[in-house]
Design brief:
Number of helices: 2
Helix content: over 70%
Low-confidence stretches: none
């Protein structure tokens, strides 16, 4: 899997959310550099787990839809 990268705008949004969470929930002030470093670490070390789960979820939706198409085709069969 290739490296997970975010646009500068996306990364800024993620950093702001992380800083807000750390401040609100843990009463910890996280600076811009530290938040950026933590996001990079999480992306590198755990990003593939989230990415793969997204793939599995998408695959399950596709299988469900294909089953629906298969059922519709069987209903069209003539005896």
């Amino acid at each position: 899997m290739s490296k997970i990268e975010f646009s500068p705008q996306q990364k800024q949004q993620i950093i702001a959310k992380l800083q807000r969470y750390m401040s609100t929930e843990l009463d910890v002030e996280l600076g811009q550099f530290d938040a950026d470093f933590l996001i990079d670490f999480i992306s590198k070390e755990m990003g593939s787990l989230y990415y793969n789960q997204g793939l599995y979820d998408a695959q399950a939706v596709l299988v469900e839809r294909m089953d629906s198409f298969t059922d519709a085709i069987y209903q069209l069969e003539k005896s």
